[in-house]
Amino acid sequence: MSQLPLAVKRLSVTVKRLPAALRRLPEAWRRPQAVAGAVVALAWLLVAAAAPLLAPYDPLAQELPRLAEPGPGHWFGTDQLGRDILSRVLYGARVSIPLTLLLVALSVLIGGFLGGVAGYFGRWADEVIMRFADLVFAFPTIILAMVVAAALGASLTNAVLAVLVVAWASYARVGRGLVLAVREREFVLSGRLLGFSVWRSLRVDVLPNVVGPVLVLATLDMGTALLLLSGLSFLGLGAKPPSAEWGAMVASGMEVFDSWWVATFPGLAILTVVLAFNFLGDTLRDALDPRTARAVKERAL
Amino acid sequence: MTLTITGLRVAIRDTQILSGIELALHKGQVHGLAGESGSGKTMTGFAVLGLLPHGARASGRIELAGRDLLGLPDKELNRVRGNDIAMVFQDPSTSLHPMLTVGRQLTEHMRPHLGLGKAEARERALELLTKVRIPNPAEAYRRYPHQFSGGMRQRIAVAVALACDPQVLIADEPTTALDVTVQAGILRLLRGLCDELGLAVLLITHDLGVMSAIADEVSVLRDGLVVESGARKSVLRTPTHPYTRSLLEDLP
Amino acid sequence: MTSTQNRVRRRNGPLPTFHVRGPILGFLARRPLLRFLARRILVAILLAWGITLVTFVLTNLVPGDPVAANLGQRAVGDPVAVAQWRAEHGLDKSLPQQYLLFLEGLLHGDLGTSQQSHRPVSEDLAEFVPATLELAGAAILVSLVLGVAFGLIAALRRDRLADHVLRMLSLIGVSVPTFWLALLAFYVFFYRLQLTPGSGRVDPAIGAPPPVTGLHTVDAALAGRWDIFTSALGHLIVPALVLSLYTIGLLTRFTRSAVLEVLGQDYVRAGRAKGLSGRVILFRYVLRSALVPIITVAGLAFGSLLSGTVLVEAIFAWQGVGQYAYKSATALDLPAIMGVGLVVSGVYLAINLLVDVLYGVIDPRVRLR
Predict the structure, then answer these.
(1) Where does this protein reside within or beyond the cell (chain B) (predicted)?
(2) Structural domain harbouring C268
(3) Which of A65, B61, B105, C78 is the most buried (most CB within 10 A)?
(4) Model ipTM?
């Protein structure tokens, strides 16, 4: 089950070509896809930061007419409790985006650390960690996350923990492959021969070479993480009802599905964020060497 | 004169790859095309078969039996490829389809080109395998390329190229990817087939040692231009162009 | 070395050499494909066992209390009722004992009794698994056909309009939240256009076909009941399409890059140099080789489809494993969760095994050495 020899072969190429990738980056950034992705992602970050200034109403106040159609005054309509959907979507960015960022950051740190340890130390550490990763891979993500979320109790924090349980594994694989590839390269070996400590060689020689590909994977993973997180909320295993979380808002739209606007706009919000990060990740990946690109893509599944 | 190339120019986007190649191949003779990597040797071979990479433009004239191959529509060119002109590639481990049996690869172009039936094609394939000295042809017919050694694979590739009795054979570095010990065998095979079948062979190689072993005529290519051409002895013994001289001096 | 070769090497792996060959090992040694399969099945069984262990530990380590989840908060105050309920479900024993009991039952095909439905878990699963397989199977079929076709077109029309459009669409396909799309489709096709039936697997007025495979469409066709078949297909079509959108996008992207890689291979140029027709080059040379990476991804995609069913089933009231898993997870119904975990990972492993067998069929380098 281990994907190792593949990753090693490909990623050893990566490391050599990173400078070339950095040179190609500016060109990649000029592509319309990249520009669109960057603009939309930045716009959502701004919305998340400035939601209280932008939102016309209090996202929790149940003061408007119920289930009003979109129109002047409330552009996205109102939900069954008389809350303004535009305001809720804007505030939803404050819930979903930081949590997704946090989630991906934690997956990178935890998965990357475990994978790095597995790759660098090998032997039993490698076996134990990677067999766990195999188990996670063999299990459909959402069912595993569902069990964890249900067991911990429905809350946003627990949903993040649940997604984390399944998300770390792909970084562990990539991290391990990259470290293995770099470990055998001459400058690392020579550093070790010069008597540098394990940690110094990891920090100074290995880490800088590993950051690029992991960053690409993380960007692509933003979308996956948001989809999973909002999916759990949709199932009622994440955000609690009054909270303006997008997945939960779509779920509440299911109760009144003939009022299409209740579910449509929060769903569009999820779609645009995911799309923006996928655009960005795609561009970053293309800027990398094509062979690495494929290795990263396969891991991203 | 079997195949004549005159004023062949090839450009990919803004880069001029070939800038006026002149070459003539004769029946029963091996014409060696020498030059460093990047000089345009392989592109010359590809241009003859119309296999230039995407976006390449070719001009000039490549004449076979009174027809200009550069002007042929793709359908008619397909009747020339493999039938009148065949090619042997550098690395037999990548130039044979890994998922098709040797027999399939030997016969699949015989049927459209020669109009042979299944049994006839098989018979001919077995003859070809014998001719390129593959032991136990009937067994080899059923096997896959990965089950053979590198030298054997190149022999199979030669057999595939000869399947439809071509007049011209383009061999692009046919020994470069092989062990030194089997290189001589492949070269001897090519030379023998050339004499026996009256083939006109274009042997593309960077290796002047290979060249001196079997070529009748030699052309030296540099930056997309033939700088020197003539009989092997005169080119290799008394080179006139300084580039040829420097190539020869680099020989061990 | 190409990725395909790498993958083949890896799959084929260094097999253990046996110094003393018993009759079975000797038999296997003479048949590389069988030996290869035997090894894969052994790994699959070990992995399935690992999954039961992880599920068990996970559901027991966490703070949730199944007693409260099943008996309600009021009953928790009644120690007699709690003790009785715990004894009934074997929860009064120590954890290792509970796990051993579970394994022992498993060997007899007994997955325990669901605390929710009060039926044997195996019975529940027999009812719900075929429903999900029908949905996911239809979705993977649609994805394979459309995804491979789109990817092939994109690769052959590289950097032209069709390529740009298909790449953009595939990127959107992998970015759409499935549950939202399901809801929109439900609203548009059922509520607005009234083109398709709303929820469930078949019109209740017609009823389910006599069960053979458990797949309503297949069973109806087997029984010759075309009225049921039409109804079942009508119910299946929208959820399956919704579910397949993500995998279509995935397969389009992968097929494109796989085909582009094969197009650059020497043997494709050699095939063209032989004067083979465009059709032969496309199918025998390009697509056949690209199929190896494509089926790898299709296998992985099936896993993500199984995840997607949880969300889609909730919206279309599709009585499948997704719904069952959701109910069991929220109720902390341990035997049911373990059962779902086993079955789902079993299906996943079976798909992986199928992918391995297909490798052998497609690529002689796996089969013969």
Answers:
(1) Cell membrane
(2) 128-334
(3) B105
(4) 0.90
